[in-house]
Design a protein that fits this description.
5 helices, globular, mainly alpha, 62% helix, 107 residues, disordered N terminus
Length: 107
């Protein structure tokens, strides 16, 4: 996965900063950087499971945001990491997607 990240100039620390700034005011401070990193890792687990990170695909990637959010929620609950509401997870997922757009990751 590191090769794919390098290709798009993906920076995990910058992603976390971006998401922390993306969160609405009432959610600021609720998530540690580690919480966000864990959730972002789940997002990339989902991408990998769907084959989105394969070097062999040149197809446009269509991400089902609802499916992605449900995957993150299910796995966070299973791993007993935090007690996050679906709406909160949604903001982090959307923040990560916006970060990826900002670096043209899916173009």
């Amino acid at each position: 996965m590191a090769e794919k990240e390098d290709l798009f100039e993906y920076d995990e620390d910058e992603s976390v900063k971006f998401i922390q700034n993306y969160l609405p005011q009432e959610m600021k401070g609720k998530f540690s950087d580690d919480d966000i990193t864990y959730i972002v890792d789940l997002i990339y687990d989902f991408y990998d499971m769907k084959g989105f990170l394969s070097d062999e695909t040149d197809e446009d990637v269509e991400i089902d945001e609802d499916e992605l959010i449900q995957y993150v929620i299910k796995n966070a609950k299973k791993d007993e990491v935090g007690k996050f509401e679906p709406e909160e997870i949604t903001f982090i997922v959307q923040g990560e997607l916006e970060y990826c757009d900002s670096i043209n990751m899916f173009d």
